[in-house]
Amino acid sequence: MSKHHQKRYRHLNQQDRDRLQALRDVGTKQKEIAKILKVDPSTISREIFRNRRKYRQKKNIKNENACYEAGVANQKAYVKRKYAKYQGKKINENENLRQYIIKKLKKSWNPDEISGRMRLDKKPFYASKTAIYEWLRSAAGQQWCPLLYSQRYYPKKQKKTSKRLMIPNRISIIKRPQGAENRSRYGHWEGDAMVSGKKHHSKKSLAVLYERKAKYIAAQKIPSLAPTNFNKGISIMKKDLARTLSLTLDNGIENRNHEQLGFLAFFCDPYSSWQKGGVEGAIKMIRRFIPKGVDIGDYSDDYIEKMIKILNQKPRKSLKYQTPYEVMVENNLFNKKKIPVGEIALRG
Predict the structure, then answer these.
(1) All domains of the chain, ordered by start, with CATH?
(2) How far is CA 170 from CA 47, 178, 181, 265, 271, in A?
(3) pTM value?
């Protein structure tokens, strides 16, 4: 290849980018700019494409208005070079530096102490604490991670997790009957479980039911979210209900034994809790009495019963200011009368 046709690749610096912007602003073509800067034309096209300032725009529309600004381009190039190779590379390439770090790690020094002492002793080599941590994360330094006092950067062993079992004979919510979908019939329910929260190790939970048309709420405390416990809680509540045509659930493992409930069960799409918005709203109301982060096990069955009575005796605009309890009684939706209609004071 002749000298005239040899490709000239090199990194552009701030001065080059300033000239590129000035030439581009006056309408100079990219090939001419390449000749002036003595680089290959592809260097100029890549520089403009990668480091130009981009503006938000509609999807699938080419950004013709993106402009090239030397300052922005130089910063983008700096960031890309900075993170192109990991910080610990020079430790592998400098044997004296690497042995020094390993020796100090064996003395229980941490990377910050090693780096600081290196500078204090004016060693002919140097690595920042960040570079040392990056090296320890890499394949070359991983074997020395157990020497760290903190095992933050030590690779965690993969826990053997049991494969999450699918819900057998799952029926999608799209097959839910019209009476349940448009709330034109009583007896279509939604179900969910309410848990204590991350701050507590207690597994005590609430199994919650919600009647889609009457807006009636039922809740039962259960020992855990195990499918057998969840089913038991639903069964206890179901004894008082005269009409249970269907039940809409999410895909939680507590619903695995849904076929034993005696409901025709339908399941929401994954990550679509809004498809059973009634019971989600009911749980939000319950949270006024049992806030997030508290232990459900600390609340007695009597407290929970009184709380549910209060919620069911609140008049609802959507029920023309009747209460859910009154609607249930009026439409014979109880197997037996639950409570007299009256105000109940809740003291916890």
Answers:
(1) 3-54+63-82 (1.10.10), 89-147 (no CATH), 173-330 (3.30.420.10)
(2) 54, 19, 18, 8, 16
(3) 0.53
